[in-house]
Amino acid sequence: xxxxxxxxxxxxxxxxxxxxxxxxxxxxxxxxxxxxxxxxxxxxxxxxxxxxxxxxxxxxxxxxxxxxxxxxxxxxxxxxxxxxxxxxxxxxx
Length: 93
Description:
Blueprint lengths: L1 E3 L21 E3 L5 H16 L5 H35 L4
Antiparallel strand pairs: 1-2
């Protein structure tokens, strides 16, 4: 997944100004595990503290990353429960 930052004067699909971050940089961050999400969030925080990113942009991206992290956790828990159920069916307790 990539977080693409576009100029503020770009337009969305409806022809209205898009609410996008102000910088013109592309940030590529792997976001497949909760650990990836933690690393991505730390990287964005460091960019904000260095002055390369606006705090409002960090807030939007952080919210999206945290939601994704919760979805990943939920999928991991569901897979773990399925494996436990299978083990119990086989007689492992």
